[in-house]
Amino acid sequence: MDPITRRVFTNFQPISNANSVGTKSPASYQRFSFEQARKQDSVTDTPGAGSYLKQPEQLAETWKVAGSKLAQLTHRLSALPKTTVSETIRTRLTQIDSLYQNLGAAIDETSASATPGQLLKLQKDMYQLSEHLELISRVLDQLTNGVKSILQMQL
Fold first, then answer.
1. How many beta carbons lie within 10 A of that of residue 50, not counting itself?
2. Which of 23, 40, 55, 79 lies 20 to 30 angstroms, CA to CA, from 117?
């Protein structure tokens, strides 16, 4: 259950009323207390903002996966004929490679006691790198399919 929904439902408890027989009117519920909610948040296992940040070890694993994808894209691009489009993609892939190398150096410099701001920046950069690789992958797929369809038409 969603932590916010759980907090709302657990703080509205019916007041026992001896006069009511099975029916509960809106007046029979306690008012929501923000103090109770804060105390409950400190006691329960509701995830805080820090739990969404990836640790340097997790970022290093994601970085390794991105490296293998980058190598795979470079290999696929080298198999294509040299055209202006493929050279543009090759230039963009070189820029992404430098971003990859810089991110790897930043991950190596980051310790386990990094601030949440530093971890968030690394996570943002890793997301950016992954998105760039995904975009280049789609462009290469389209380029490869275009070359295949041209070669099939000539046969």
1. 8
2. 40
Name residues whose C-beta falls within 8 Å of residue 131's C-beta, 6 or more positions apart in sequence. none
Where along the chain do its domains lie? 3-46, 53-154
Per-residue pLDDT of the chain (155 residues; tens, 9 = 90+): 555 555 544 544 444 444 445 555 555 445 555 666 655 554 444 344 455 677 778 888 888 999 999 999 999 888 888 888 889 999 999 999 999 999 999 888 887 778 888 888 989 999 999 999 999 999 999 988 888 888 887 65
Please name which of 92, 94, 100, 105 lies closest in space to residue 65, comparing C-alpha atoms: 100
Asked whether 30 and 15 are in contact (CB, 8 A), the reply is: yes
Sign of the C-alpha dihedral computed for residues 93, 99, 105 and 108 taken in this order: negative
Report how far residue 131's alpha carbon sits from residue 67's, in angstroms, rounded to the nearest whole number.
Answer: 13
| The model scores a pTM over 0.85 | no
Dihedral pair phi/psi, residue 14, rounded to 5°: -70, 145
